[in-house]
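Record type: monomer structure entry
Structure origin: computed from sequence
Chain ID: A
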Amino acid sequence: MSETPATPLRVLFCIGINQNFFDLPTGQGGAVWEAFTGMMTALGELPGVTVIGDMDDDQHMVGPSASWPWTSYILADVPDQQTVAAACNLFRTTRVGEHSLWRYAQVEARIGRPLTTPASMAGEAGQ
């Protein structure tokens, strides 16, 4: 008997840039951007993770964001909650000089599922 593969979790990683980034001297944010790019690559390489898309709103939002609206978002399908935690942990383990990325950015993961019509409702749409 074969097992049915588990449906992946649909996860929205909400990312806020902290004041520490904006406190850096002008022209010295490059190391943070490189670390951020490395973190995004590592997130996409986690086993079973499929990045669906990302969005950055740094053109219409200037300054730190500690909650909604966040600065940027990554939408991904993730196999389980342990992998979601591992993705969030990348902010702790990705180095920026002598610091970790979480000195400059924070993450909050919203876990859900794809929005689809439930099978029990499939025939009722036109009624």
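Annotation 1: The chain has a mean pLDDT of 90.
Annotation 2: The CA atoms of residues 49 and 78 lie 5 Å apart.
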